[in-house]
Structure formats: structure tokens, C-alpha cells
Write a structure and sequence with these properties.
- The chain has a single domain, classed as Ferritin, core subunit, four-helix bundle (Ferritin, Up-down Bundle).
- Helices cover 83% and strands 0% of the residues.
- With 170 residues, it is mainly alpha-helical.
- The protein contains 6 helices and no strands.
- α1 packs parallel to α3.
Length: 170
């Protein structure tokens, strides 16, 4: 008979999932940064890479307070989202703007996946009364939401009617 999971067990498993997702992102982002052509997008992604490294550190702090290890679980959801991004980087686009737009779309999928994960663990940490974790996780959530918003703004500036017509003319 298998052991029934408690709320605390579920919380630890979900934190491990987010930890895995964030560490996968820290490995994928440098490749994306090398691929994009927009200087503004490159700068935003470099900033978010630093934030992501901070998010990994925050999750490690939470695991230290739980006297547990963040290792041992692979986030297959993030693995799939990042694999889609690799496919987008391998495509040939009619213009650099279209490629950047495709990469922005992939990055936004990543951000939205993370936002959902953070909301989940914040709720669970709240139920468990772990206010320090709630504070740390909320900071990460706000960074993810800001990154998603910045990507939306960049997308609107990169994919203009002129860029679309340039891409069709090639």
C-alpha cells in the first residue's frame, strides 16, 4: 500500500517541480539570448536570467527551512515547453523580427507556466502557515508577471505591420 500524501508532502513535490523548471530555464535562456536579434529583447532576457537565478536561490532557501532537498524531480511540463522553444529556434524565418516574435511566444509560454506554478505553491504555503516562503515565492511570482508583461510590450514593438509586410515580401 502506498503512503497517502499530506498537504506538506504535496507542497514539497510542487516546490521540487518549480525548482526543476527554474533550473531548466537557467540552462535554456543563454541559448535563447544568443539567438534573438532585438537588442531590447536580448537585454530583457538577460535581466530575467539574473532574476531566474535569484528565484532558484529563493527556492533553495525554502528547502533549507524545510530541511529537505530540492533535487530528485524533473519538471516534464517545462521540459516540453522548452522543447517547443528549441524547435522554434531551429526554424528559418522570413525576417529576424518574425524569429524574435516566435521566441517571445515561447518565452511567454514559459512565464505563464511558471506563474501558475507559483500561484499554486503560494496558496499551499499560505495554508501551511509558512509566511517566509509566501514572501519569497510572491517575490518570484511578481518577477514572472513583470517578465510576461515586458515580453508582451516587446512583441507589440517588434511585430509591427511593417515587419509583417517585410516578412511576406521575402
Amino acid at each position: 500500500m502506498t503512503k497517502e500524501l499530506t498537504l506538506h508532502d504535496m507542497y514539497v513535490e510542487h516546490l521540487k517541480d518549480i525548482f526543476s523548471a527554474e533550473t531548466q530555464i537557467t540552462k535554456a535562456l543563454p541559448k535563447i539570448i544568443q539567438t534573438v536579434t532585438s537588442p531590447e529583447l536580448k537585454k530583457a532576457l538577460e535581466k530575467h536570467l539574473k532574476e531566474t537565478e535569484g528565484q532558484v536561490d529563493r527556492i533553495e532557501q525554502i528547502f533549507q527551512s524545510l530541511d529537505a532537498s530540492p533535487r530528485g524531480k524533473k519538471c516534464v511540463g517545462m521540459e516540453g515547453v522548452l522543447e517547443e522553444g528549441k524547435e522554434a529556434m531551429a526554424e528559418e524565418y522570413a525576417s529576424p523580427e518574425l524569429m524574435d516574435s516566435a521566441l517571445i511566444g515561447g518565452c511567454q509560454k514559459v512565464e505563464n507556466y511558471e506563474i501558475c506554478g507559483y500561484k499554486d505553491v503560494i496558496h499551499t504555503a499560505t495554508l501551511l502557515g509558512d509566511t517566509k516562503a509566501v514572501d519569497l515565492l510572491t517575490k518570484s511570482l511578481h518577477e514572472e508577471e513583470a517578465a510576461d508583461q515586458k515580453l508582451t510590450e516587446l512583441s507589440e514593438n517588434i511585430i509591427t505591420p511593417e515587419a509583417v509586410h517585410a516578412g511576406q515580401a521575402m
